[in-house]
Amino acid sequence: MMASATSGIGVSPDSPGSLERGACCLYVRFDGRPDILLTVQMIASEIKGHMSDSYAVVIAIENYQQPGMLPVKYAAADARAFRDALIQRFHVPEQNIQLWIDSDATQNRLLNDLPYEIKQLNAGDRFFFFYAGHGFYSKGSNRLSTWDSHPSNLEGTTVDIEPVLLQPLKRGKCSRNLIFIDACAKGLDAEHANARDVLADLRPEEFEELVLESQYSAAFFSCSPNERSYSFDKLQHGIWSFFLLQALNGEADDAIHRDDWITGESLKAYLRLRVRNYIREETDLRGQQTPYAALHGDGLVEILQVPRQTASGGTLPLLKLAFDKARFRQVQTRSYRSMDGFDKKRGNTEPTSHSASASSWAKRLVRDELAVELESIKKKAREVLQVGRADLSLKLAEDAGGSLDSDFFRYSITADQDGMDPAYIAVTRDLILRVPYQQLPVDFDSIFDRPADEIQIPFNASEIDFDELANYLEQYARQIGGQFDEQESKDLITLILPHGGLELNFDFEGQSLNVGRSTTRGTLKLIAAMNEASATQLLGPPPKLLGAPKKIGVASKSRPTR
Predict the structure, then answer these.
(1) C-alpha 370, offset from chain centre
(2) pTM of the entire structure?
């Protein structure tokens, strides 16, 4: 029934038996003020074998066709992340998810395709709907903007929620509703570019009717009437959506009610507390944002079970990943001949074998430029992290390279003759994080001249041998449409995941997993890749701290970035 969607973030539980088949889930986000709160509800029990009956429409309009419609910052990121939570946490088949972003979310599509999809649902189905964009209330109806909405004719170029969404749900066979709205209703003006604003107050009555008609309904809004809903650069999400996703991905213990369950009431309380506190303590925003929820009955409806994780946190058996020892790496190789200090007229020749003298020469050739690079990194770190020179400790090695330490990270550069080709020099740059990656500023990777292109994670495989791991990964590749390869003589296994080509290299002899992608550079982008659905399903989600903490005097609270 549904077209396939792309992948994203989410954490899969130990078993797929978390939710009962047939829950309807609606996630709506307006870039405006919501006076409404959509129902969020999910019934859990006996999902296994029935999740193929779960469907979703996920919509985000971050950039509109008309310049007069201000962008909705991070709407696309919120939609993709929510989509991934559906895949990984709720086990919604990816092919059952429609993902409409920007130009895919036209007025014609919402008027025709959306009600059509809802009408196809059966009594045992679950339906998830997510909307991120501008919304408003006018002449008795709540309206959603579309990619081709025009500011001079909003009523004629937007869609009425009632006939395209609410009425099809009320009249349809599907009786389980999950609805989220990230919205507020202030002016669409440049002064409030970080607010998710609309033209006028949204009204909750239409949505409350849907909630009351089904005992399995609930509605969650990002803010209360007369408030704003904000995006924030450091989070690269809407603030409310960020904390919602943390809860759905099992990263928020205070969203759990009891027995590892997130309920309507526990999610409502969690979002209200976390969003308000974050805005007050971590930003310089002067407005208030108080999430609101409309729940059926006592609010204890079970939304999602957060099960205990396995050793790896994903489906990979008996492989214990040491995320606390993870490092971000970039290795550069250069020929001796290409170096400024190489002088053929003076009789210099490229080494043809490995030796102590060739190693020493390699270090002399790169020593000065690596010292300059480290000094440059220290200067940029002061600017980006807004710390003083005393908060950064630079140590230059006697031969070549050195290290830079801070409370945020440890960075080191080493150089030597390349282990594979004696005619080349290898320069290795390693980064270890000292704080949770969510605390890093959005421009963190601009500090480094050569951003990391892989994550290296040690693992303990004492409970599994090479053949068992290879057999498992080969079967897994077939199931997900990935690519499997091995070099048995070197105890190396390569798995390339679908939907973006993330490459996992398992070095069984060295007990190390190297994760990277040819098109991905930078610490934050690599972490985002690790959070993609196909990766988290296998490995589990990366923990908040990829590395080990170290305190040497820098404040751990990162600056708000707007």
Answers:
(1) 33
(2) 0.53
